[in-house]
Amino acid sequence: MKNLLFIFLLAFPTGFTFSQSTCPPPIDSNGDNVISVIDLMYVLGLFGEVDVDADGIWDSEDVCVDINACNYSNIPSEMCLYYDVFNICGGTCFEDLDEDGVCDDIDDCIGQYDYCGVCNGTTCDFYCGDDVPHGNIDYRTIGINGQCWFSENCRYLPEVSPSSEQSNSLPIYYVYGYEGTDVSAAIATVNYDIYGVLYNFTAMISNDVCPDGWHVPSSSEFSSLVNSLGGFVGSGYKMKATTGWNLNGNGSNESGFEAYPGGAMSSSYNVFHNLGTYANFWTSSGSTSMG
């Protein structure tokens, strides 16, 4: 129920003489030399109501009166909300101990992976920048923001399929433009040498694609890489190779990631497409593209 301040008017008969008195100064409850709603609330509060958080709403009508809440002066019927660790009002993450931008309750590693791919490992004798042998190929590596990445496309190829072969349950390996099944012939192509191998998801998550101690990155790990290079808008130029991209799409490769536009294989039309203009990288939960 609203509290009303009643003003009584008193009529006096004529003939009475009154001496003029000086009106008392208005009440300036917060000393800001401005008479505002806050001051009016203070005056009305003398009649029994209070407004602890000074948001202009009586506490009896205000669900949230905690001035430490991030929404205490917003909607009266809204429960108090608080900033989480990422400074989001009403956010649900309250711990990010390794300050990697990933909430601890969904973080694959609270800390850092060592260069052998072990979370908070301490016994790794590999140093990022060393070559990593796998399947008769020595892969170059590069350290970026505490992570170690291959700086060239994977070329692991135990078998090869033409574009006409598709499967969601079996591992399938392609070399862009090659329509045969001879692994040696596929390896001899220029596209294999430059762009490596195209994998379906089943092939990508097989244990043989990565060397021991390495893993296909999670989406959070790939996001951490991208964010460290300026986010999705600015990172592409830093990750792209300085040659090989069409339509003036070459990058600076200042990150050392050296991404080449290996194109893709369309499972809808059974054709290879976008060589030179498009790169698609798997994560353990899906894929991300660069063009």
Detailed description of the structure:
This protein is mostly loops. 15% of the residues lie in helices and 12% in strands. The protein has a domain at 132-290. The protein is built from six helices and ten strands; from the N terminus they run αβββββααβαααββββ. The protein has a two-stranded antiparallel ribbon with strand order 1-2. β7 and β8 (271-273) form a beta hairpin. α5 crosses α6. Residues 1-18 have low confidence and may be disordered.
Helix run count: 6
Strand order of the largest sheet: 1-2
- DSSP strand tally: 10
Unreliable sequence segments:
1-18
Percentage of residues in DSSP E strands: 5-15%
Shape: elongated
Write the H/E string, N to C. HEEEEEHHEHHHEEEE
Structural class: little secondary structure
Give the mean pLDDT: 82
Terminal CA distance reads: 62 Å
| Gyration radius from CA atoms, angstroms | 34 Å
Helical fraction: 10-25%
Instruction: Note the main sheet.
Output: 2 strands, antiparallel
